[in-house]
Amino acid sequence: MDRIAHVRSMAHYNRWMNERLYAAAATLDHKALYDDRGAFFGSLFGTLNHIVIADTIWLKRFATHPACLTALAPLRDEPMPAGLDAPRCPDLPTLTEHRTKLDALIHDWAGTLTEADLDVALPYKNMRGVPATRNFFALLMHFFNHQTHHRGQATTLLSQSGVDMGATDLLLLIPDLTDPPVATP
User: Fold this and answer.
1) How is the chain split into domains, by residue range?
2) Rounded CA gap, 83 and 53, in Å?
3) Cβ atoms within 10 Å of 152's Cβ, excluding its own
4) Which of 6, 39, 48, 162 sits at 20 to 30 Å (Cα–Cα) from 153?
5) Which sites bind a divalent metal cation (predicted)?
6) pTM
């Protein structure tokens, strides 16, 4: 699999997992959703909020990449979050709506990237204002890995509340090459 196909696969996995994760979270009562249970960002809601905040921060950084200016333009007017736990939305339905729009943006944006775009060195500043310049493809892998990391925490919090997410592995979206090809009309 080439790098562009991998980025697009990760964008698809991100959207798929978030749809499942937010549907599972919607089954919980207020206490199970908002109580601090000692996770990095306290509650399940805090964890979901953090993923949205971190995605927004990275996407705003990625929007400075010359190849991303148009695709990520909808984020231009979005304020840069003040911190990694800054509240984005007041409740789960609003956060779900925002997450859905963000995932559509990520999916569509991934479809615009080319192989040459991946080798660009992207300068940015971290949340403390410290400048860095890193390979764009490596930053994309960090972006998707960060989502997966915190979704793992979210699925643990769901499990502690009695909600079974079932299998969550990327493997579920990787075609089995021993299966016969599906005929397309």
Assistant:
1) 3-173
2) 8
3) 11
4) 6
5) 50, 146, 150
6) 0.91
**What's the rounded Cα separation, in Å, for the pair 8 and 175?**
14
Q: Which residues of the chain fall short of a pLDDT of 70? A: 181-185
pLDDT tens column, 139-179: 999 999 999 999 999 999 999 999 998 888 888 888 888 87
Give 95's contacts (C-beta < 8 A, 6+ positions apart). 22, 45, 48, 49, 52, 88, 89
Q: Can you state the angle between helices 136-160 and 3-25, rounded to 10 degrees?
A: 20
Q: How far is CA 70 from the centre of its chain?
A: 20
Architecture of domain 3-173: Up-down Bundle (1.20)
50 is in an annotated binding site: yes
169 touches 59 (CB < 8 A): no
DSSP per residue over the chain, as a string? --HHHHHHHHHHHHHHHHHHHHHHHTTS-HHHHHS--SBTTBSHHHHHHHHHHHHHHHHHHHTTSGGGTTTTGGGTTSPPPSSTT----SSHHHHHHHHHHHHHHHHHHHTT--TGGGG-EEEEE-TT--EEEEEHHHHHHHHHHHHHHHHHHHHHHHHHTT-------GGGGSPPTTSPPPP--
- pLDDT score at 117: 96
